[in-house]
From TrEMBL:
<dbReference type="InterPro" id="IPR046867">
    <property type="entry name" value="AldOxase/xan_DH_MoCoBD2"/>
</dbReference>
<dbReference type="InterPro" id="IPR000674">
    <property type="entry name" value="Ald_Oxase/Xan_DH_a/b"/>
</dbReference>
<dbReference type="InterPro" id="IPR052516">
    <property type="entry name" value="N-heterocyclic_Hydroxylase"/>
</dbReference>
<feature type="domain" description="Aldehyde oxidase/xanthine dehydrogenase a/b hammerhead">
    <location>
        <begin position="237"/>
        <end position="325"/>
    </location>
</feature>
<dbReference type="InterPro" id="IPR008274">
    <property type="entry name" value="AldOxase/xan_DH_MoCoBD1"/>
</dbReference>
<dbReference type="InterPro" id="IPR037165">
    <property type="entry name" value="AldOxase/xan_DH_Mopterin-bd_sf"/>
</dbReference>
<dbReference type="InterPro" id="IPR036856">
    <property type="entry name" value="Ald_Oxase/Xan_DH_a/b_sf"/>
</dbReference>
<dbReference type="GO" id="GO:0016491">
    <property type="term" value="F:oxidoreductase activity"/>
</dbReference>
<dbReference type="Pfam" id="PF20256">
    <property type="entry name" value="MoCoBD_2"/>
</dbReference>
<dbReference type="Pfam" id="PF02738">
    <property type="entry name" value="MoCoBD_1"/>
</dbReference>
<dbReference type="InterPro" id="IPR012368">
    <property type="entry name" value="OxRdtase_Mopterin-bd_su_IorB"/>
</dbReference>
<protein>
    <submittedName>
        <fullName>Molybdopterin-dependent oxidoreductase</fullName>
    </submittedName>
</protein>
Length: 750
C-alpha cells in the first residue's frame, strides 16, 4: 500500500524526471519475480507458462472467474500461441506479482473522448500505462481481462514455444527455423518429433530469442472459435467451489448485525444473553477495523459452531444504535440536492466542441430531465469471506475481484505485513463490481482476529447484502438541444449530477483521498459518437452519504439511458425515424453505423401490436446496438425479443460473447423494469428479492446476437450490452403509448 501511494505521489512531483522516464518502454510482463506454482515435475518457462513431463501445460490465471468465461478465454490465448490443444492446459492461481497487474483497466480511466487522436491523449495513455505496470494492481473489472492480457499471455505462449523449439533444435543439431510445432510437439522435416514435456527442462535454462513473433489473425486456430466453457461441467454437477463453499478444518461461522442507518454506531447490546444460546462461541465488535472506510457499517458479529446458530443468535441481539447525523436522509432529499447542484451550475466539462452559445439561436429547443435511482448488485452468492488469523499470518478463502486490495487491507486489519497474507481465490457467484470492494473481507479478518486462531466464515444474509451494499449512484441529468430550420441537430448541452465512485473507492480500498473529476460519473455522456457541431457535456460531483461503488457497466448504465432516450426525443422533434436520425449523425463513424445497421437489419419489422425501440452505445471499447421488441398490456411492459449487434474487435470466443450479451440483457432489463433502491430515515428500504425483484425465466426475452467481423484488438464484452437495454425499451414504449419515460425503473402512468 505504501509503495503504491509513494509511486503515485512521486509521479505528481517528479517534473522533468517524469518526462525522461515516460519516454522509456513499459516494463515487460512475461517474467515475474514470484515463482509460478507448479506440481508433478512441471518446469516454468516464464511467469505464465509451465510444462510438465506428461506434456500438460500449466497456465497462470490472473483474473477471477465470475461467470464471464475467463477460465476458458484466457488460456485460449496461450494455447493458440503455444500450439497445444486447450484440453491439455490446466490452470493455477497466479501468485502476487506485478506482471499480473491490470494495466488496461487503469489506462482506460483517463477521460479522453474516443475520437481524440491528439498527442496529449496518446502521451497520457503511455504514461499511465507505465504507471499501472509499476503498480501491478491485479483487478478483475472494467470488462478488461481479454483486452489487458491479449498481448502478454500470447507473448508468454509464443516465448515458451520459441524456447521449446530452440531446445529441440539444439538436441537435433538442426536450425531452429527448420522446426515447427503442432499439438504440443516440436517437429522437423526429417521426421524427428519431441513432446514439449521432453524438452521443457532444457528449454527452461535457455535465454528466449530476441525476435519472438506472435501469430497473425490469419494463423489462428483456436482464437475465433467457440470453445466450450471449461467451468460448465463443475458448475452443472455441483463440484464447483465458490467462496461460500470453503471448509478449512476447525472452521466456525459468523453472522453479522450492521448499523441500519448510514454512519450509525453500536450503543449497547444484550451480549451476555446471546452467549448462552446453543453453539455460540463469542460476540465480536468489529467496528474499529472499518474506521476510515467510506460508508462502512459498524456492528457486531456472533460466532458459533454452525451458521444457523450464529444467524439465530445474531437476530436475537437487542442492539441499541446511535443513529448519527443521517437519520433523516431520504431518496427525495437526495434528488432535491442533485437538482439544486444542477441549478447552481458549474461542474467539470468533460467534452466541448464548437460554440454551445449557438443553442440559443436554434429554430427549436427541446429540454428534458432524466433520473436514475441507486441500485444494488444483488449477486446470487451473497457476501462472504473465510478468514484465519494465527501465528502472525492471515489466510483468506474468498471470492474477490481485487486480490491486491484484499491482501493489503487484510494485512492492515490484522496488523501484519502483506507478505504474511495467503489468498485462496474461489469462484465468484456473481461479481458485477461488488466484489471489487473488500469491506466484507476486512470485516471477516477483524472477526477472525478475535477467535483464537480458528478459521471463521462470515456470511451475510440477503438482507445484509441488500442493505449494506456499495450502490450504483443515484443520478440526475438535464439536456437542452436545438434543431436548425431544416431539422438538423445543431447544439447539445448535457449536465448531470451524482456521486464520484472513484473518490469513495480509492478511500475504501487504498486509503487514498479522491480528488478532481471522476470519469466514471460522466462516461456514456461525454464520449458519445454523434456528430453534433456544438456540444458541451458537464458533470457535478455530489458527495453521497450512501456508499457507492462500481456496478456492472458503471456510469454507462444510466448515462446511456439518458443520452439514447434524449436522442430519440430529438428525432421525434425533427420529425424523423430514430434510426434515420442516428444515421445522419454517424457519417464519420463507419463502425458505429455498421453496428446500428446490422441490428436493425437482423430485427426486421415488429409483429402487429409490438414496437421496436433502438439504442446505440459504446462502452469499454465495444460498440453495441440493440433493438428491443416490446408490447404493452395495461401498465405492464413486456419485452419479447432483443437483437444485439456488437463490434468488440477480434472475437476470441464467439460463444462466450453471445453468453455475455444474453446475461447483460437480463441484467439490464432487471434494472430497467424493476431495479430501485430507496432510502428512508437514513436506511435502505429494500431487503430481498421480494421488494428488489430480478427478471425471472418466464420474463426473459429471446436474445439474438450479431458479432461483427473485425481485425481490431479485442475490447470489453462483460458489460457493454447492459447500457442500451433501458433506452431501447423506453423508446419502444414511446412508440406504443406516446409516453416518454424519463425515470428508471420504467413505469407507465396509465
Amino acid at each position: 500500500m505504501k509503495r503504491r501511494t509513494f509511486i503515485l505521489s512521486g509521479l505528481a512531483a517528479a517534473g522533468a524526471v517524469l518526462v525522461g522516464w515516460g519516454a522509456l518502454p513499459p516494463g515487460q510482463r512475461i517474467r515475474g519475480k514470484a515463482a509460478l506454482p507448479v506440481s508433478q515435475g512441471a518446469v516454468a518457462l516464464n511467469g505464465w507458462v509451465a510444462v510438465a513431463p506428461d506434456n500438460t501445460v500449466t497456465v497462470a490465471m490472473a483474473r477471477s472467474e465470475m461467470g464471464q468465461g475467463v477460465l476458458t478465454a484466457l488460456p485460449m490465448l496461450v494455447a493458440e500461441e503455444l500450439d497445444v490443444p486447450l484440453a491439455q492446459v490446466k490452470l493455477v492461481q497466479a501468485p502476487a506479482d506485478k506482471i499480473y497487474g491490470n494495466v488496461a483497466l487503469i489506462a482506460d480511466g483517463l477521460p479522453f473522448h474516443p475520437d481524440d487522436e491528439s498527442r496529449t491523449r496518446h502521451g497520457a495513455e503511455w504514461i499511465i500505462a507505465k504507471v499501472a505496470r509499476e503498480l501491478g494492481i491485479n483487478i478483475t473489472g472494467g470488462s478488461s481481462s481479454i483486452k489487458d492480457l491479449w498481448l502478454p499471455m500470447r507473448e508468454a505462449g509464443a516465448t515458451a514455444r520459441a524456447l521449446l523449439i530452440e531446445a529441440a533444435a539444439r538436441n537435433w543439431r538442426v536450425p531452429a527455423a527448420e522446426c515447427r510445432t503442432e499439438d504440443g510437439h516440436v517437429l522437423h522435416g526429417s521426421g524427428k518429433k519431441a513432446a514439449y514435456g521432453e524438452l521443457a527442462q532444457a528449454a527452461a535454462g535457455m535465454t528466449p530469442p530476441a525476435n519472438v513473433r506472435i501469430k497473425t489473425p490469419g494463423q489462428f486456430r483456436l482464437i475465433g472459435a467457440s470453445a466450450p466453457r471449461r467451468d460448465t461441467p463443475a458448475k452443472s454437477n455441483g463440484s464447483a467451489v465458490f467462496g461460500i463453499d470453503a471448509r478449512p478444518q476447525g472452521m466456525l461461522y459468523a453472522a453479522v448485525r450492521m448499523a441500519p442507518v448510514f454512519g450509525g454506531t453500536v450503543a449497547s447490546s444484550n451480549t451476555q444473553a446471546v452467549l448462552n444460546m446453543p453453539g455460540v462461541k463469542r460476540v465480536v465488535d468489529y467496528s474499529a477495523a472499518l474506521e476510515g472506510q467510506t460508508g462502512a457499517r459498524a456492528g457486531l458479529a456472533v460466532v458459533a459452531q454452525h451458521y444457523w446458530q450464529a444467524r439465530q443468535a445474531a437476530d436475537a441481539l437487542d442492539i441499541k444504535w446511535n443513529d448519527g447525523p443521517h437519520a433523516s436522509l431520504s431518496s427525495d432529499a437526495i434528488f432535491r440536492e442533485l437538482g439544486k447542484r444542477l441549478d447552481d451550475g458549474g461542474g467539470h466539462t468533460f467534452h466541448e466542441a464548437g460554440d454551445i452559445g449557438k443553442l440559443d439561436g436554434a429554430a427549436r429547443i427541446v429540454r428534458a430531465e432524466y433520473r436514475a435511482p441507486y441500485l444494488a448488485h444483488a449477486t446470487m452468492e451473497p457476501m462472504n469471506c473465510t478468514a484465519q488469523v494465527a501465528d502472525g499470518k492471515v489466510r483468506l478463502w474468498v471470492s474477490t475481484q481485487s486480490p491486491a486490495f484484499a491482501i493489503d487491507m487484510a494485512a492492515r486489519a490484522a496488523g501484519v505485513k502483506p507478505e504474511q497474507v495467503e489468498l485462496d481465490i474461489k469462484l465468484l457467484g456473481g461479481g458485477f463490481g461488488r466484489r471489487l470492494d473488500v469491506d466484507f473481507i476486512v470485516q471477516a479478518v477483524a472477526i477472525a482476529k478475535q477467535c483464537g486462531g480458528l478459521p471463521v466464515q462470515v456470511i451475510w444474509s440477503r438482507e445484509d447484502d441488500m442493505r449494506h451494499d456499495v450502490y450504483r449512484p443515484a443520478a440526475l441529468a438535464r439536456f437542452a438541444a436545438g434543431l436548425d430550420a431544416a431539422g438538423n441537430l445543431l447544439a447539445w448541452d448535457n449536465q448531470s449530477a451524482g456521486a464520484a465512485i472513484g473518490h469513495q473507492f480509492l478511500k475504501r480500498n487504498m486509503g487514498m483521498p479522491g480528488a478532481g473529476p471522476d470519469k466514471n460519473s460522466a462516461e456514456g455522456e461525454y464520449d458519445m459518437p454523434y456528430e453534433v457541431p456544438n456540444q458541451r457535456i458537464r458533470h457535478v460531483n455530489v458527495e453521497s452519504v450512501a456508499p457507492v461503488g462500481y456496478w456492472r457497466s458503471v456510469g454507462h448504465s444510466h448515462n446511456a439511458f439518458f443520452k439514447e432516450s434524449f436522442i430519440d426525443e430529438m428525432a421525434h422533434a425533427a420529425g424523423l425515424d430514430p434510426v434515420v436520425f442516428r444515421r445522419g449523425l454517424l457519417q464519420r463513424h463507419p463502425r458505429h453505423l455498421a453496428v446500428l445497421n446490422a441490428a436493425v437489419d437482423k430485427a426486421g419489422a415488429p409483429p402487429e401490436g409490438r414496437a421496436h425501440g433502438v439504442a446505440l452505445h459504446q462502452a469499454f471499447g465495444s460498440i453495441v446496438a440493440q433493438v428491443a421488441e416490446v408490447s404493452v398490456a395495461g401498465k405492464e411492459i413486456v419485452v419479447h425479443r432483443v437483437v444485439c449487434a456488437v463490434d468488440c474487435g477480434i472475437a476470441v470466443n464467439p460463444g462466450i460473447i453471445a453468453q455475455q450479451v444474453e446475461s447483460s440483457v437480463v441484467f439490464g432489463l432487471s434494472a430497467a423494469l424493476m431495479g430501485e433502491i430507496t432510502i428512508d430515515g437514513g436506511k435502505v428500504v429494500q431487503g430481498n428479492f421480494s421488494d428488489y425483484p430480478v427478471l425471472r425465466m418466464n420474463q426473459a426475452p429471446k436474445v439474438d446476437t450479431v458479432i461483427m467481423l473485425s481485425a481490431e484488438p479485442p475490447q470489453g464484452m462483460g458489460e457493454p450490452a447492459v447500457p442500451p437495454v433501458a433506452p431501447a425499451v423506453a423508446n419502444a414504449v414511446f412508440k406504443l403509448t406516446g409516453q416518454r419515460l424519463r425515470s428508471l425503473p420504467l413505469k407507465l402512468v396509465s
